[in-house]
Amino acid sequence: KVIHSPPRFERDMNHTKGGLVIFTANSHPSSRELGKRIAERLGVELGKVQVYQEANRETRVQIQESVRGKDVFVIQTVSKDVNTTIMEMLIMVYACRTSCARSITGVLPYFPYSKQCKMRKRGSIVSKLIASMMCKAGLTHLITMDLHQKEIQGFFNIPVDNLRASPFLLQYIQEEIPDYRNAVIVAKSPASAKRAQSFAERLRLGIAVIHGEAQDAESDQVDGRHSPPTVKTTGAIHPSMEIPLLIPKEKPPITVVGDVGGRIAIIVDDIIDDVDSFVAAAETLKERGAYKIFVMATHGILSCDAPRFIEESAIDEVVVTNTIPHELQKLQCPKIKTVDISMILSEAIRRIHNGESMSYLFRNIGVDD
């Protein structure tokens, strides 16, 4: 009689070596939910710690158990007050460092300020600043998910594991959309075409790209320095030479490259925050004949009136993961659905703590994914 043992992923999930401590660095109750899920999957208790705001709005962290010589994992989800979130993380990491923890791994499913990763005129690359602060505080490893730009990993001088949520979203499409074979994957702008192509190739579906929408903050037009010299000087340049100017971009009227008529349209992106562009894309797809519209994204920030705009729009369903707590938004808008990604985070923690290879979590992931 042959007895088949369970897959290694499931068999080893709840087995970790000693010396593992998991803290949640967030003072907001709804933001601690992900930490509880991860701890349950690993079969450990959350570490005892107090994180709170004093009357003068200073953040205070008090670790209430020994971390000397232990592997500490600090889980931090981004709350509405992103700056407080960062300070809570930094102070807790520094507290673990000064308490002689052997290693300190930060688990930030959504990396804050990730959209500010390019130089714009006289701005700054804030993602680099945040990375430097975290390394300086004492972080020795970072686990994150679907960075806005993969190059952000280069801002750190410590190992960074940029996990992917796409397997969970693909599974949702296959299990929760009965006629997904009649779907088309849509990129709401050419910038997100690579992600759409990745989804389409894995699901064996067609792809459509919306082109010509209004200028957005990620465009190249505002990237760089456009201030002309106040006085036309020719001291350093020969009088007969003149620097050619780059012709400004002018976007054409909105067009949809690809057939969406009589199909389900699935718009994919990494972040859904300001939903105006998603609502506009949904209206365009409806006009082109799409009969059902889904939006799939890893990080559901959903700021301000996003739930109301989604509820009033042509979008049928918005599917996001629980990298960011959004229970309040779900109460305001029943169209918002959540996919749990605590499994992959807990497996990453287990493998790092046990000194196992992380390549299993990155199988079938290409350079452009």
How would you portray this structure in words?
Strand 12 (292-300), helix 8 and strand 13 (317-321) form a beta-alpha-beta unit. The protein has 10 helices and 14 strands. The strands form 3 sheets. The chain has a 7-stranded mixed beta sheet, sandwiched between helices. Residues 1-14 have low confidence and may be disordered. Helix 2 packs across helix 10. It is α/β, with parallel strands linked by helices and 369 residues long. It has helices at residues 8-11, 33-42, 82-98, 126-137, 166-176, 193-203, 276-287, 306-312, 327-332, 342-354, and strands at 20-24, 49-53, 59-63, 71-75, 103-108, 141-145, 160-163, 183-187, 206-211, 255-257, 264-272, 292-300, 317-321, 336-339. 28% of the residues lie in helices and 21% in strands.
Q: What structural class should be given to the helix and strand makeup?
A: alpha/beta
Biggest beta-sheet profile: 7 strands, mixed
Q: Tell me the series of helices and strands, N- to C-terminal.
A: HEHEEEHEHEEHEHEEEHEHEHEH
Multimerization status: single chain
The percent of residues in helical segments reads 25-40%
Percent of sequence in beta strands: 15-25%
Please, how many helices?
A: 10
Sum up the overall morphology in one term: globular
Largest beta sheet: what is the strand line-up? 10-9-8-11-12-13-14
Quote the average pLDDT.
88
N- and C-termini, Cα separation: 43 Å
Radius of gyration: 23 Å
**Any low-confidence stretches, pLDDT <50, length ≥5?**
1-14
Tell how many strands the DSSP assignment holds.
14
